[in-house]
Design a protein that fits this description.
This protein is mainly beta. It contains two helices and 58 strands.
Length: about 675
Amino acid sequence: MTDHASLSRRRLLQAGGALGLAAAAESVLAGRADAATAGRARTTVTDLGPGLVQFSLMSGLLVGDTVYVGSRNLDPACVVGFDRSTRKVVAHTPIDAEPEPSIQALAADPAGRYLYVGVLLKADQGGPNLFRWDLTAPDRPAVAVGRTEDRDIRDLAVAPDGTVYAVGGLPGKAPALWEYDPATGAVTNLGVPDPNATLARAVAASRDAVFFGAGSILAGGGGASRASLFAYDRAARTFASIVPKEMEQDPSMRELAVMGDQLLASTSGAVEPGKIAVMELKDLSSYTLVTTQSDTIKSFTWDDDRVYFATESGVQAYTKADRTIAPVTFSGPDLGEIWGLDRVDGDLEVVSGYGFVAEIDLAAKTSVVTDLLAAGAPAGPQLGMGIAAGGGYVYVGGNGGVARHDRRTGEVVNLLVPGEAKDAEVIRGSLYTGQYDAQGIWRYDPAARNAQPHQVADFPSQQNRPLDTSWDLANQLLLVAVQSDTEGGGALWTYAPRTGKSASYVNPIDDVQMVRAVANEGGVAYLGGDNAAAGGPAPAVVAVDPVTGRERWRIDPRQPAGVAALAVRGRYLYGLGRKGGLFVIDVRTRTLVHTADVSAVCTGFAAMVVNRGTVYGVSDTTLFRVHPRTFAVSAVVAGIDGAWYSGPHVNAQGGLLYTLRGRNLVEVDDRPAG
């Protein structure tokens, strides 16, 4: 039996103790020497060690008596084999894909000899994304066997004859169905069945057909399609739409599986909960449809009586006889985000995003939980998410966890939080995070006994992706900028820590632009818009009353590709555009007073913060400052090259800046000239 508190303590000894504490202690002694001076300016950079160390995962599959688990945001990427009988990691292979691969897709051939591995990549460098591991010779590493031009592989399926099928996506391009023939080594594009889909996350295969599930889980809204499901006739090489009419308005197909002579299909919900269809392979127009009370339905497994599936709140079971759904109850910890579910010998094998495997005895309703780090999985520093500082701690968010760095002792503790802490603030000593995917706002109080993070505010699931946070001192509100992946547009969330009241103001800029950035001053919130669609309105900066959600005024910042970050100092609102532009708005006169090309230090995503009366920005490459009078930009730490998962972050506390250099947390003491 394992609970959150014991997992956190164990990971302190394993991950933080083995890497974080040693690196932090060493850097405190040696890092102070890492200083650069220019004129009267002085900058000191202290390396605090890896930001978040753990075995992070994104997939799990049972083959024989071994659970294979694919890593997420670790370098190098790997797959480990967890033996059910010994509860030890008994096999390991690196996956030689670049850059920054994560492994969401695993599938085995019918004989259980080969494990196929599909990867997600942060950028396309033309390398392979499909690999094969010979499980009869697990000491030999997996080898690359092909490449789909969609870059990311989200799901894999193997037909009874051993042919492999892959789906995924590439931003701005409709996903195709891909085929890998192990006999010839050929990878073939079988076509794009839905030209308006933005992402495909589900594929299944039978002897005669391949089933392709897609939709708009990313870059939704506008002309993007909703849930789409196609059957590909392997003999005729043609596609036919088979989506049940009740699913047509759901955002996306989420999971597909062939169960005997039936096809299981599920959708991810947004306005309405997700659904499951049990479809007859001989007549796909004949199906049973069940509406769940969950937003996510994935990872099907089954026995003679029930179909089991993972949701955002745990494991549930669909009883075939009476067509009812009920949660699987057991004694044990919260399972977090589930990335693998298999049924074997009266048990369920659950692979949790928290980094453990749970074996649930369905009859006894008990569980045995094995931490994969303790079982021998490799620990490594993650790509970072959000970052926050305060109360003597610095927090670094990642997948399934947040690392708490104690600045007094150097101790590092990993806290379990489902999903991804995209950004965060420390308010009166407590940490508040904006949690992806559709997890709302979470709180952690380090002073509370046996404290663990917990959700304090929930919001509609279609407002799913927090991007930026800001503490509004005047109104005592936490402000969160949000993107809607499925519907387009975005929202401004507000949360009052003292009262627990929350609010969500949907599409405060327009129904296309997400709220990419938020800053505030004097009780006014400033929102930076970013348009993910190919067309539509130009990016805008909008001033909003965060108490009522009412717009006060708006202005065009003259940024062609959206606002990346905002910060307020005095009467000036500073902003960065996603194509290397700096702009400054006088909020008193509501006029744009300065623009400049700063692409030498900043392109793409960015973050800004005010520290010691100066505005700082960080990009993927550089930490820089903006002169408070001339608005000139100068580098503070060139080549900082932070290893971020979805855009850089910077935070300030006590006159010090905190961000990532590579995968390590750094503290920057910058004292500009003058």
